[in-house]
Amino acid sequence: MHKINIAGLVAVLESHLEALQDPASYHSLFAQRPSEIVTMRVNSPIAPDSSILAELEIRPSHENIARSIKALADDDAVSAIVLDWDCPGGAVLGIDASVEAVRYAKKKKPVISYTNGMMCSAAYWIASQSTEILAAENTALANIGVIMVTNDYSKALENEGVKYNVIRSTPLKGLGTPVEPLSAEGRTELEQQVMETHNNFVADVAAGRGVSLEQAGVWADARVHGGSSALELGLIDGVHPNLESVLERTRQIVNKQLRPRERMQKGASKMTLEQLKAEHPDVFNAAFNEGQASVKPQAAAVSAADTERMKKLEATVLELQSRAEADAKISRDNARRAMAMSKLEAAALPQVDPAKTNGLDLNASFKADLEQAALSAATDEQAAQKVDEMLVSRKAILGVSGVQAQITQTTTKFEGAVIRTNIAAWSGASAEAKTEAAKSPADFL
After folding, report:
1. Strand 37-42 vs strand 29-32: parallel, antiparallel, or unpaired?
2. Which residues does residue 81 pair with via DSSP β-bridges, in sequence order?
3. Closest to 194 (Cα-Cα) out of 220, 160, 232
4. Is there a contact between 230 and 135 (Cβ–Cβ < 8 Å)?
């Protein structure tokens, strides 16, 4: 059956937990604001809104991407938004929110999408709504298309002796459930859903890039393009080697959109901090104190939020580690049981007739003891060694090595008590040990 890669997820969570403890290195989804042009980076696959990775803000979701973009669009201090992508794509569900957020922001100010890494699939779908799309030369772009994967574990389950009965009110309910093969009717339905999403993708790209549906359809062959080929095809608007070049291009777009009076007002109001401090020290000090007073509660709020986020991450890591350890123990125990039973079967030991042992099933007792010895060993090597030793001893007792011991008295009566004994141990036990054992009946075999 399908299992979550818990160890991998724990490693991801731990890496983000370390990053969160060092805010300078935390880079999941954030905005940098060195000036009026704000850069927002999306540098991992986009998770579904309901994903735990999205909830803990380890990976971006359409919900938090849309929320961040709309907040910047409504911020009058922001003159332009640069979306810095390094994203292979991600979830389709919820993508309408991200697409609409870029359209909303573009009506209010320039939105520039840029990548010097990846801007593929869902990432390009969102970026196609930008004012301009820019990219470095050696990048991966476009990959316009939709994919759906369903799992079929029915054969594996059958081999394990597990059978699921699926009861549905209509043939199309529960399409793609992994416990049964996908029917022809179900496959046709899922293919129609994929094509419907594909057509929506193409339509949004056509609208965002200002081309016809036919042209966007030509692009939608799932090909991945570098900067030059993407520019030649019309998928992007320019090739830029780095983010600094993109910011300069963005400033040019902003200045073109400003009216002459606005540009004049912005130029006339410019004053450096040094000039303000030298010419108006009272104003400078008042502004500095006011800024400190406003920043402190914000910093405290951010610190509290980070602390709470760290607590959630730590709790999640501990829970997943516990689950991983439990799964590892189950796997180890199952492997040791299989090893012990395989060795027992290969040993081909003769069976002890219960009729000769007062009805006691010594065969089942030995099998249980063999399994318990394998499970209680400290290591797999010790488990195999213990099983081998018990089988050798058992063979000797049952006469497999030529001893031909007669097991006719496997129950011994002492002072009215009947006990089942480990024959190998019993044969070498002293009279005192036998008398002591008889006082506390036990099953050793």
Report:
1. antiparallel
2. 38, 111
3. 220
4. yes
pLDDT tens track for 126-138:
999 999 999 999 9
Decide if 83 contacts 128 (C-beta within 8 A). Answer: no
Task: Give 350's pLDDT tier (boundaries 50, 70, 90).
Answer: confident
Q: CB-based burial of residue 47 (10 Å sphere; 0-12 exposed, 13-18 middle, 19+ buried)? A: buried
Burial class (CB in 10 A: 0-12, 13-18, 19+), 140: buried
Beta strands in 97-228 (DSSP E): 111-120, 132-135, 140-142, 224-225
Tokens of 257: 């959109």
Bridge partners (DSSP) of residue 443 are 420
One-letter amino acid for residue 437 of the chain:
A
Question: Pairing mode, if any, of strands 37-42 and 111-120?
Answer: unpaired
Domains of the chain by residue range: 6-321, 349-439
**pLDDT, tens digit (0-9, with 9 covering 90-100), for 184-226:** 998 999 999 999 999 999 999 999 999 999 999 999 999 999 9
Closest to 197 (Cα-Cα) out of 134, 147, 234, 261:
147
437 neighbors 415 (Cβ within 8 angstroms): no
- 310: number of CA atoms within 13 Å, CB side? 14
Instruction: Give this prediction's pTM.
Output: 0.53
CB-based contact 144:208 (threshold 8 Å) = no
Q: What angle do CA 276, 278, 284 make, to 5 degrees?
A: 45
The tokens describing 21, both together, are: 């403890």
Residue 170 carries which DSSP code? S
* Termini Cα distance of the chain: 36
Question: What is 6-321's CATH topology?
Answer: 2-enoyl-CoA Hydratase; Chain A, domain 1 (3.90.226)
Beta bridge partners of 90: 46
